[in-house]
Structure formats: C-alpha cells, structure tokens
Write a structure and sequence with these properties.
The protein is 20% helix and 27% strand. It is α+β, with helices and mostly antiparallel strands. A five-stranded mixed sheet has the order 3-7-6-5-4. The two termini are 26 Å apart.
C-alpha cells in the first residue's frame, strides 16, 4: 500500500518494523564495564549472569491498514526459562513465559518498564510475540484497540531520526 506520510510528507510503500537494540537495563551498566558484565546477541542479553532478557516482537494493530506496527522489544526472563528458551530456540512447544517489559517506550508518558507480559513462542525461526497483561496502560490499550496510521508513522520517524540511543 502506498501512503502519503502526514509526518514527513513523503510517499512510503510499507510501514517498517522498528526495534530496540538492547533492554534499558543495558544502559545502566557503565560503558567501560559492558564488555565484562554483558553477554549479548541480537536475540539475548545477560547482565552480570543474573539478569536475563530475550528479544521479542510486540504487535500494535494499525487502523485501516493491512499490517501491524511491529516493535522489537526485550522481556526479562527467569534464569530457568531463559535456559529453556536457549535449548528450544526454534520451538513453539515451550511457554508462554512471564517477563517484565524491558524497554521504556518514549511514545508513552507512562512507564512501560513496569508492564507484566508473557513471551509466546512461535517457532519457525521467528522471535517470540509479546502478550501484555491487561491493564489500563495506554500501550496495552493501543495493542488492544489499535492506533492510527499517522501515529504509527510518528513512531517510525522518531526511530529513523535517531530518537534514542537505545534503538
């Protein structure tokens, strides 16, 4: 679908997914100590051998559009569930596993890092999907009710314009 963006005025073909490179906790470790204290890949992050995170996808429906806005975000995991995930990376037969949302989304005034969630594993070489626990938090409401295409593009442009060093 070709779309005239209300944010930048340009024509776009598709709404891209956006993602956070690390969980927020990564940035609490002094830069000089990260190589020593953090083990990370594009899909996992372990801090001090006691904080475990996996990369997941949060889907936000977009009104009158054929695709959701996908956000690559991080969920904390218990050490046991993290180990199960590593041993069964490509399986949909595990979980869902509880975790805390690991990124503060700048699009929301209310903190998103305190949201309870579950990682639902898909298998087939796909990242787990995030299921947020029902609350009245605006992010949860957006995942339930959807957002406008203009709002989705604002999020994408924030990301593309380097809105945060965590992306």
């Amino acid at each position: 679908m070709v779309y005239q963006c209300a944010v930048c005025g340009e024509t776009h073909d598709d709404l891209p997914d956006i993602g956070f490179r690390w969980p927020d906790y990564y940035f609490e470790v002094p830069e000089s100590e990260r190589d020593e204290r953090i083990k990370g890949t594009t899909d996992t992050c372990v801090i001090d051998d006691k904080y475990f995170f996996i990369r997941c996808v949060l889907l936000i429906p977009v009104h009158d559009y054929q695709q959701d806005l996908g956000l690559g975000v991080w969920l904390s995991q218990s050490e046991e569930n993290f180990g199960t995930y590593l041993a069964n990376f490509d399986s949909s037969d595990i979980g869902p596993f509880f975790g805390w949302f690991g990124n503060s989304l700048p699009f929301y005034k209310e903190d998103t890092g305190s949201l309870k969630a579950r990682a639902r594993f898909q298998g087939n070489n796909q990242r787990p999907l995030v299921e947020l626990e029902p609350t009245d938090h605006p992010l949860v409401q957006d995942c339930t009710n959807g957002i406008s295409l203009d709002r989705a593009w604002k999020y994408v442009h924030w990301y593309e314009d380097g809105g945060a060093n965590s992306l």
